[in-house]
């Protein structure tokens, strides 16, 4: 284990540094990538040599979580350090203003990140960083686009959460009901692949900013591996030939998308290296929620993803919906290269952690829900001054009804929010699959966690579902 003293010396050197000496920051977020989708996390099918290499050079987190089991809320949590429930952004943008008509009426949510919220980009921008967003945004209408939240440049980010197609020109209608496009990627050619095109733009930004004296914050949020599930044909064929009856993961189209994601992360890492920026660049890679476990719309005979050994997937507060990969490589020479950390962290933590590594902790006075976990990057056995993680998804999805959850140590409690909602309790240290409900055999532990969960929901003023009067009248 690396001496903490050396890290502190490096840290205080950064704190006193000018803007030109601050580390570059590259934050890469995949869309709907499951915890078990990378080879270094145990995938028995997907080939991810570049992300595996990043893990060997940095720290791989086994117990990292997205603040939400769906996209928009997690992305808001990353940029603000605040929990989606506190932001009143607990569902994706397109559904935020809808209440539905099921047993419970879902709470109305904000469909755009409020301009009064302080974002990571705004803090970095105010301290000399060039801030560029590339890829998926999905945090609001035009008035809340990246340019309104501290970014100098926005390529590909819109109000939509996914493209109509991953092949040029990336627009049209058909897969989704509305007509969609991905801006600022012209000129292009037939056969161009969206993940490649976004990386081309990201590399241009790195090359451009390597010639300046200011540090860069590259917010690279890929659309992949979100639906529509479209891999490059040659890679699809490769995985069709690789899959066996014993394979856990069996979708060759999804596997092809994962490989393209890995290839492009590798291109970014190689460019950082060739530009001579590796020793002064913080690289973070994660996903916005767990893998999508429904049937594939374009390939109807197969599930999109398989999060085994985790239970369920996107939309659910079971581990398959909220536990995500997280790999971080820091510019510090004291980084615990190749080490694994099992301390629980969550996407709200990125805001204070990134500012800490950049020496800018004191430059933001906004209160956040996240904690700075930069100490884990040099001492993977350290512990954080926090025991509980909270999750709140008061909405319906194919994998769940409205739900809240809390993790405290190895204990995990899930509360369904419907009438007579069930409470489930799991010991994750012994049961990562969440197959053994201990709520009845451990009532004291159940009640302690349930009270904490209810107190937290009250503190953050979490929006709650309500009984549907139409259903109530029907029952009478």
Question: How would you explain this protein's 3D organization?
Answer:
With 476 residues, the chain is an alpha/beta fold. It has two domains: 4-386, Alkaline Phosphatase, subunit A, CATH 3.40.720.10; 390-475, 2-Layer Sandwich (Arylsulfatase, C-terminal domain), CATH 3.30.1120.10. Helix content is 27%, strand content 16%. It is built from twelve helices and 15 strands. Helix 7 (233-242) packs across helix 8.
Task: Record keyword descriptors for this entry.
alpha/beta, Alkaline Phosphatase, subunit A, Arylsulfatase, C-terminal domain, 12 helices, disordered N terminus
| Coarse morphology | globular
**Named CATH architecture of the largest domain:** 3-Layer(aba) Sandwich
- In the CATH hierarchy, what is the superfamily of the largest domain? Alkaline Phosphatase, subunit A
| Whole-number count of domains | 2
The residue ranges in which pLDDT falls below 50 over 5 or more consecutive positions are 1-16
Query: What do we call the CATH topology of the largest domain?
Result: Alkaline Phosphatase, subunit A
Largest sheet: 9 strands, mixed
Helix/strand-derived category reads: alpha/beta
